[in-house]
């Protein structure tokens, strides 16, 4: 890395916590605007929170639901990061390694979504079942 690169890197570095936070929020806004799946996951999150409030979840149940929601959203962001980096490197040219990376990133999202679905079905299923057998 030569002096010019180092100077450029120093210019891009976050200088305080507020600046880091601002950039993180810009990242959230970008993923919201660019990614349909992220908006769908956010809508599903709203439904889960509304259902959780209506069904009066316990603290322990809320922790499971929050963990599932946040991990799906975070994984969706990582998937987008990988897609962007791959596109940046390949310049949108077809490449078997690019395909591998993107398919594996999608697989991680899929596994996370299955986990969240299992948690949701278990917690909400039990709560709704208890409402009916009362
Ligand atoms: N440069 C590439 N070379 C080869 N295959 C690619 C390349 N880019 C994308 N693909 C293939 O196309 C699929 C879709 O890629 P794309 O970048 O459009 O993701 P996406 O549709 O935004 O995915 P997601 O639904 O996970 O957000 C990838 O999973 C991969 O199989």
From TrEMBL:
Mn(2+), Zn(2+), Cd(2+) and Co(2+) support activity to lesser extents. One of its GO terms (cellular component) is plasma membrane. It is a multi-pass membrane protein. ATP binds at residues 11, 35, 83, 102-103. InterPro entries: DAGK, DAGK_sf, UDPK. The active site is at 76 (proton acceptor). Coiled coil: none annotated. Gene3D superfamilies: 1.10.287.3610. The keyword Lipoprotein does not apply. This is Diacylglycerol kinase. It comes from Liquorilactobacillus vini DSM 20605.
